[in-house]
């Protein structure tokens, strides 16, 4: 079947907008042509299609970052920080070890880069509980 490139482009742009598509490969599922035909017509090269895909990607990323910023989830907050961090901060986050002393003089070393999201959440809950339980104590008592 012969397809008209402009008509396929129009249908592709409508699909991108209607379904919030963010990958070129997704478009073919919404078109009447096959994947080889899509590429033979050069639809993957068109600035209009690339621009529509880019618009959806940026819109979704912006929305996610906005949601993460207002979230109480520590994992999301760290993820957002990593996205916004400069090179030095990013490097420190990926290799940073924290030494913590307890009343028994036991030292703990934690490599945050090796923790899972669940372990990180548990660590933050535990640390928060310790801090709340020691509020009002002087530094010498700690």
Main sheet overview: 2 strands, antiparallel
Order of helices and strands: HHHHHHEEH
Strand percent estimate: 5-15%
Contiguous runs where pLDDT drops below 50 for at least 5 residues:
none
Number of domains: 2
Structural class: mainly alpha
Quote the average pLDDT: 83
Radius of gyration: 25 Å
Beta-strand segment tally: 2
Helix tally equals 7
Classify the helix fraction into a percent range: 55-70%
Ends apart, CA distance between termini? 79 Å
User: What characteristic shape results from the CA principal axes?
Assistant: elongated
Give the neighbour order of strands across the main sheet.
1-2
- For this structure, the quaternary state is single chain
Structure commentary:
With 142 residues, this protein is mostly helical. It folds into two domains: 5-69, no CATH class; 74-133, no CATH class. 60% of the residues lie in helices and 7% in strands. It has seven helices and two strands. Strands 1-2 form a two-stranded antiparallel sheet. α1 (5-19) packs parallel to α4 (47-69). It is elongated, with a radius of gyration of 25 Å. The mean pLDDT is 83.
